Amino acid sequence: MAAQTLYQLNQSDIPRQWYNLAADMPNMPPPPLNPGTGQPVGPEALAPIFPMALIEQEVSRQRWTDIPEEVLDIYALWRPTPLYRARRLEKALGTPAKIFYKYEGGSPAGSHKPNTAVPQAYYNKKAGIRRIATETGAGQWGSALSFAGAMFGLDILVYMVKVSYQQKPYRRSMIKCWGGEVIPSPSDTTQAGRAILAKSPDSTGSLGIAISEAVAVAATNPDTNYALGSVLNHVLLHQSVIGLEAEKQMQMAGEYPDVVIGCCGGGSNFAGLSNAFIRNKIAGKEARIVAVEPASCPTLTKGIYAYDFGDTGQMTPLLAAHTLGHDFVPPGIHAGGLRYHAVASQTSQLFLDGLIEANAYHQVECFEAAKTFCREEGIIPAPESSHAIRQAIIEAQRAKEEGKQRVILFNLSGHGHFDMGAYDSYFAGKLPPDEMDEQGVEAALRAIAALPKPPGYTGKPAMAGR
To answer: What is d(CA 306, CA 179) in angstroms, rounded to the nearest whole number?
Structure first.
């Protein structure tokens, strides 16, 4: 009989509550600030663009939040998601390590993003909102929100980072299939976009710019709200279903991870898998938790911990986080979902407290890891997920060198079926350069030097090494 590789829960095992790590964190991040007054912002500052239910989740320290039945009904289209043991990869690497991965690519949008898109659409619909404006990098969030909008009868407007709009035409088509409208950003449809184009007519765009455009639309149209696919507390809350399921599935396998790995841009899929295990770590159960970034946009490993805007147009409150500066425009790497200038405040605080660690890798070595993985396990990973695979392979090779057993768990946050242009470039040896723009970062950090400073500010990069 073949050894077990698949650990699948029943539909009745879909979590019925979201888990909020804020209830168990030893230290909370500093509060968001009003950029004009420097004072903490209250719910009223968010009310023009978010429904009150999501604002309450954003500021909550309640450990558990019930998942609405209407959301559970849609979750059941693809959840619970499977946990696999990568036995073929283990054999190919000749490692004593046991490698497990949680696979989120079976959702309608092909990634973990619907875990928060569905509840965000639900709460907006309940609040009487007609349309949601949002941004997207690689298109995974834009397509996920368009899917969720179709489920609840909402119009969706997506500002897609221009370089990804050009690189990933089928993500654009997915958005349109579900009835969404997609516009390349920066665009001439908003003042924020026009200002960028006036300075840089050939701008490839960034998530910070696209956020500015979407927020501008939401702030000036009473029937329109804004939705964010990562970074904010309520997004991390909704993604907790990943780790809660994985915790049960690891118990089914009779194992507990020594290391938990997720790729990390804004932090949603990383937190989604890791927060349940961070809770256990805080309670005394040891495991290494590793966030993996692109070398071209390494917010945790080379950013500074500071107050910064979440968008280039300076329309959001100031958030305390590891940042490269809101003006920073990363190179046009194919892992578009990781091209964000800052990381979630909650994730930043965990990094400051030593509860997580971080590494950064170049896209060529990540595509190498993705190739190794798909030739053994059969799944073509999204470029974002390839960063987690790179780290998992390094951990497995280290276990081999040390002659030690090690249990590795990572999140395969989505498939790469709409990223084949990126794989074409990789196999042709034509991946674009992805060195971090040092001068661009220096200029972007100078631009935030006068902003308020959070506790723990040093003005220096964290310099976390591999």
So the answer is: 39
Question: Quick check: is 392 in a domain?
Answer: yes
Q: What angle do CA 335, 295, 206 make, to 5 degrees?
A: 50
259 strand-pairing partners: 288, 408
CA torsion, ordered 276, 413, 262, 208, to nearest 10 deg: -110
Instruction: Tell whether the model's pLDDT for residue 465 goes beyond 50.
Output: no
Q: Write down the pLDDT at residue 434.
A: 83
Helix 207-219 and helix 191-199: axis angle, to 10°?
A: 150
Q: How many CA atoms lie within 13 A of 176 on its CB side?
A: 8
Q: What is the pLDDT of residue 466?
A: 35
Q: What is the pLDDT of residue 10?
A: 97
pLDDT digits (tens, 9 = 90+) for 42-85: 888 888 899 999 999 999 999 999 999 999 999 999 999 999 99
Distances (CA, A) of 244 to 80, 367, 412: 10, 29, 15
- Residue 431 resides in a domain: yes
The domain tally of the chain equals 1
71 in Cβ contact with 115 (< 8 Å): no
How far apart (Å, rounded) are the C-alpha atoms in residues 95 and 301?
A: 28
Phi, psi values for residue 174, rounded to 5° = -60, -45
| C-alpha radius of gyration, the chain, whole number | 20
> In this predicted model, which residue has the larger pLDDT, 356 or 331?
356
pLDDT (mean) for 5-25:
98
Helix (H, G, I), strand (E, B) or coil at 134: strand
User: What are the backbone angles phi and psi of residue 418, rounded to the nearest 5°?
Assistant: -100, 15
Residue whose C-alpha is closest to residue 160's, from 143, 177, 180, 135: 135
Helix (H) or strand (E) holding 50, with range, is none
Question: SS3 for 28?
Answer: coil
Residue position matching structure tokens 């990933």: 168
Query: And the tokens for 211?
Result: 């956020």
pLDDT at residue 341, rounded to an integer: 87
DSSP state of 294: E
Its domain, for residue 355, covers 69-110+234-446
Among residues 306, 302, 300, which one has the least CA distance to residue 453?
306
The CATH number for 422's domain is 3.40.50.1100
Asked if 216 contacts 237 with a C-beta cutoff of 8 angstroms, the reply is no
Pick 90 or 463 by higher pLDDT: 90
Least confident interval from 261-265, 289-293, 377-381, 428-432: 428-432
